[in-house]
Specification:
It is found in: Cell membrane. Keywords: ATP-binding, Membrane, Nucleotide-binding, Transmembrane, Transmembrane helix. This is ABC transporter ATP-binding protein. With 618 residues, the protein is α/β, with parallel strands linked by helices. It has 3 domains: 320 residues, Up-down Bundle (ABC transporter transmembrane region fold), CATH 1.20.1560; 179 residues, 3-Layer(aba) Sandwich (Rossmann fold), CATH 3.40.50; 56 residues, no CATH class. It has 21 helices and 10 strands. The strands form 2 sheets. It has a 6-stranded mixed β-sheet with strand order 6-7-8-3-9-10, with helices on both faces. Strands 2-1-4-5 form a 4-stranded antiparallel β-sheet, covered by helices on one side. The longest helix has 53 residues. The protein starts with 17 loop residues before the first helix and ends with a helix. 28% of the residues are buried. The structure holds adenosine-5'-triphosphate. Adenosine-5'-triphosphate binds next to helix 12.
Length: 618
């Protein structure tokens, strides 16, 4: 990877050299479909042949007329020439259309899938960073359009090679008229190229500002489409704020675009002036030569070549500018997909022995979120032995969920280390570790797939029916699923199936629990799994926990201190530090903050005997 140093703004992103990007794109193309390279070469050949027809035919017609060619011969030659021209132009159009479709396939199959997979597997901590969100926006820009970024690069290269070959051929012809004419054409085209490059350079400089504004707009659009956000937006009339911010971003984008446009406008004006000078000098010279014995057919040929030459040249400068722009976009894309991860995703260690529970040690762990000033956790040390049930309690913001995210491997400690079965988590293959743990997060998340697919993470045919039934019973979802017409194969939400259903908050939480049980993981983490459950479901769940957690290491978070009594050990967190630690009874005896909180809660929550409640209800 080559880094460029001290480049002006807008050019700083060239993390890879142009040559490196050529190798990258065409190596990938070769591996994806070799014929794409062959069709590209064919497109170049026909791109060059087509305009040649247009300058040669008029010249031949003039020559035939001046030679008084018999009518039949004249018609035959013309017909053959036009037929040939038609065939060449037809093949050229076919190749352009075919390559366009193939490049779309290549872009989507190869690069879009790679980007999606990177987003889905990249370290969570990295993906959360604001800078990485911007980097992703830029990487997507590289793949979003046909004529930009990755695909634009491929199209432009075909055009560039065609234009260079065309230019060389035209230069040979025009130098036959007079080398000075060739020199003049080159000089004029160079001036045009400089002005055009200035405009492109300015556009490139403004790219970072535009990306920032687009990230803002994308966020606002997402809020507008998000049903969850929709409730609060309606309730608190946040639509006005969204509208204002969207308009502001739009306005700023417009200002930048106007400035860019003014540079291109200047480029057009200079272009008109230069064309005026070019045509005046060249036509004047050719007319002078005509009056001094130049053949009319050559005169016609040179006229075509003069105007064609400038087109080749201008397009080449345009191609070069566009290729360098797309090269930077490819750099953005590669920067994202090649981003180094903090965890090992391949080649890391694996914890073997599938049936054994995990042993987790937090060793002097401190953690600070990116951009935050203070630690959320400070010097936290504890040991969850194999098969042990640990509870984490503490007031809001104490750092409980942060410990969960660290234990899951979503974040890495700022200081200290986390050991899993004696191995530092940094040395583990994180994706294999994910397979060994199951978590029920506070905020339930489901995909709009069937219930079975949501629970098992498998496509329907692979779902194990016996296992599923057990899981549904354990999670308390069995009766609900049985009542549904399509049972386990009922879709959630209506995105994929119109008959999809909406689960209540408590039912969703049960579904999350079912998913965690189905995974049969060696470490089970439950972050307030009963927060949305009614009193009966909650009590039933506690009864099942004993069975559910048997032999597994588990971490349990709850604000209801009474609900954590079944755990072997309770850690009471305060301001990111362990304030008290021990069994429920030990902590009560300690008579510290935990004991006081337990007493206060006792006043609000009356302990419920589930059987008593059920009897009363019956
Ligand atoms: N992604 C984040 N970026 C920055 N700060 C964060 C992030 N997530 C949490 N925090 C901060 O870390 C602190 C601890 O949050 P955490 O969610 O771990 O607390 P908690 O004990 O689980 O709280 P609760 O009981 O409310 O769920 C809070 O002050 C919170 O503002």
């Amino acid at each position: 990877m080559k880094k460029t140093k001290n480049k002006p703004e807008g050019k700083q992103d060239a993390l890879y050299s142009l040559g490196n990007n050529y190798t990258y794109v065409y190596k990938n193309m070769w591996e994806y479909r070799k014929s794409l390279v062959g069709y590209g070469i064919a497109e170049v050949i026909f791109n060059v042949l087509t305009p040649f027809g247009l300058i040669i035919i008029p010249s031949v017609v003039v020559k035939l007329l001046l030679k008084s060619t018999p009518v039949m011969n004249f018609i035959t030659i013309l017909t053959v020439m036009f037929a040939l021209y038609g065939i060449v132009a037809g093949i050229s159009s076919f190749l352009i259309a075919r390559n366009r479709m193939q490049y779309i396939d290549f872009r989507c199959d190869r690069f879009w899938i790679e980007l999606l997979l990177k987003c889905l597997t990249i370290d969570y901590q990295i993906m959360e960073s604001e800078q990485v969100k911007k980097d992703l926006e830029k990487a997507m820009e590289c793949l979003n359009a046909n004529q930009l970024g990755m695909e634009g690069f491929m199209h432009r290269n075909v055009k560039l090679i065609s234009n260079v070959i065309g230019l060389i051929l035209y230069a040979c012809i025009i130098s036959m008229a007079h080398p000075i004419i060739l020199a003049l054409l080159i000089a004029i085209s160079l001036i045009q190229m400089l002005v055009f490059n200035r405009a492109k350079y300015f556009e490139q400089n403004k790219r970072n500002d535009m990306v920032k504004l687009k990230v803002t707009q994308r966020y606002l659009q997402e809020q507008a489409f998000d049903l969850k956000a929709g409730k609060d937006i309606r309730m608190y009339q946040l639509n006005h704020v969204i509208k204002r911010m969207y308009k502001k971003a739009n306005q700023e984008l417009k200002q930048i675009k106007i400035k860019i446009q003014s540079f291109f406008y200047l480029n057009d004006v200079v272009g008109i002036l230069l064309r005026f000078i070019r045509d005046g000098v060249c036509y004047g010279y050719l007319i002078y030569r005509l009056m001094n014995g130049l053949e009319v057919s050559y005169f016609v040929l040179y006229l075509g070549v003069v105007s064609g030459f400038a087109k080749w040249f201008t397009t080449i400068t345009e191609d070069i500018a566009e290729i360098s722009r797309f090269h930077l976009m490819i750099c953005d894309y590669r920067k994202f997909v090649d981003m180094e991860e903090r965890h090992l995703h391949k080649g890391g260690l694996e914890i073997t022995g599938e049936d054994s529970a995990l042993d987790i040690v937090f060793e002097h762990v401190s953690f600070c979120y990116e951009g935050a000033e203070n630690n959320v956790l400070t010097d936290v040390s504890f040991h969850m032995k194999k098969g042990e049930k640990l509870a984490l309690v503490g007031i809001n913001g104490a750092g409980k969920s942060t410990i969960v995210k660290l234990m899951c491997g979503f974040y890495q400690p700022t200081k200290g280390r986390i050991l899993v079965n004696g191995i530092d988590m940094k040395e583990l293959d994180i994706e294999k570790y994910f397979k060994q743990i199951a978590v029920v997060f506070q905020d339930a998340f489901t995909m709009s797939f069937t219930i079975a697919e949501n629970i098992s993470g498998e496509i329907t045919e692979k779902v194990m029916a016996d296992k599923m039934e057990k899981v549904l019973k354990l999670s308390g979802l069995f009766d609900k699923v049985n009542q549904l017409e399509k049972g386990l194969h009922t879709y959630l939400n209506k995105d994929m199936d119109e008959s999809g259903i909406q689960l209540s908050g408590g039912e969703l939480q049960k579904l999350m629990l079912a998913r965690a049980i189905y995974k049969n993981a060696q470490l089970l983490i439950l972050d307030e799994p009963t927060a949305a459950l009614d009193a009966i479901s909650e009590s039933e769940l506690y009864e099942r926990y004993q069975m559910l957690l048997k032999g597994r290491t588990s971490l349990f978070i709850s604000h209801r201190l009474a609900s954590t009594r079944f755990c072997d050990k309770i850690i009471f967190l305060e301001n990111g530090c362990i304030a008290e630690e021990g069994s429920h009874d030990e902590l009560l005896q300690l008579n510290g903050t935990y004991a006081k909180m337990f007493q206060v809660q006792g006043k609000y929550y009356q302990e419920v005997d589930i059987h008593e409640v059920q009897e009363t209800m019956a």
